[in-house]
Write a structure and sequence with these properties.
The chain has two domains: about 1-350, 3-Layer(aba) Sandwich (Rossmann fold); about 355-445, ANL, C-terminal domain (GMP Synthetase, Chain A, domain 3, 2-Layer Sandwich). Helix content is about 35%, strand content about 25%. It has twelve helices and 21 strands. The chain has helices at about 5-20, 25-30, 35-55, 60-65, 90-95, 125-145, 160-165, 170-180, 190-205, 215-225, 245-255, 400-415; strands at about 70, 75, 105-110, 120-125, 155, 180-185, 210, 235-240, 260-265, 270-275, 280, 285-290, 305-310, 320-330, 345-350, 355, 360-365, 375-385, 390-395, 420-425, 440-445.
Length: about 450
Amino acid sequence: MVDSRMIKQHILNIYSKITKKSWETEYTEIKTLIDKEKLHKFQENALRNLLLHAYKNVPYYSRILKENQVIKNGNVDLSKFKNIPILTKEIIRNEKITSKEYSTRKWYYNTSGGSTGEPISFIQDEQYERWFRASTDFYFKDMHGFDLGKAKQIQLWGDYEDLFQGKINLKEKIYNLLANILILNTLTLSEKNLNDYIKTINSYKPDLILGYATSLYELSLYAEKRKLKLFTPKIVVSSAELLRDDMRKKIENVFGMKIYNFYGSREVASLAGECKDGLMHIFSFNNLIEILDENNRPVKDGEEGKIIVTNLHNYSMPLIRYEIGDIAILGPKICSCGNITPSLKKVIGRITDQFVREDGSKFSGLAFTLHFTKDWIKMFQVIQEDFKKIKILIVKKNNANEADMKEIESKLRFLLGTDCKIEWNFVDHIPKTKRGKHMYITSLVKS
């Protein structure tokens, strides 16, 4: 009997060559980086080449790299790299950071998710795409022994623009068909959708389920509530959103297996992925990542800081020391899993997930989410509208518990002041962002 999956794989290989949608060369190069010395040398060379290109072709960097003595007489001084100012969305809007030769590359537009209220467009190119896909392959193949090219996938995704505004073009649709990728729209999840998706998962029997953390969580809650059996794939991966500990536990219980966390973004793609021992390994052949404190100084292992990213391969619009808006805890340099790449202990959320006090100090709103893991709360969102004004949206499972509400109010007032005003809103549905993400904590206060 002819194996239809093998036929599809053969056609996919031909299709990839025709459309140049292949990243085998980049993946093979990653495989040569077998020790820390080779990886460090690769990253240094890639960074040096990127800086030279940016200096010669990008007006903003021509000025910045010269002013900060990163490039002098045509030579790169990497010891001055940290003199380069942090790149913010405001700088991107106001300065010219697009390469003057980007039109000679196979480029395309992409946009950030706008979860901070500041969506922005980026130019990316074929080289950038090949490297981020090769990095993703490295994560699945080399860290988990899982070949994406031979796997049946279900993706629980919910991007408004991709799914409803025609951004999934014909080439992408053909690729998904040949690669056995089935996308289920989770922008809105009704009981009917959830029931249908469980039937689809059980009948399709995917090797991999990849999805937003909240999509996987809501699916798990529904299956548990209805006592529905869910097919157990070879691997389940959460991506694009914060995976809280209580969510992880619920998803793992329902699927009957460990779930892994993958960290990526629209701006710089594949960043890090969780290993079997629980650390998030940085794909340092794709991005250079710094974890800095509020004074832009490097944090120590186990300390929390903001994530600063330099993508090594997007020459069309270089993002050098870009403040992505996320917060993480720096992990140890050596992991028991044997992976040589540096690590993050945990990605703990976005900068906008922090509450701001009147004195300018901040505290993590995500640490506060633990107080909402109550039996009567299905979904929630906490919005800081002003220094001392909080709005709480709740989708209830059953009747609200007044003692729980008073406890939450007490802790908020302890943190923000006894005169903090708290407004409760019980709703049927909490809107997601246009990227299909759910924001648990959002501060609208400009710090």
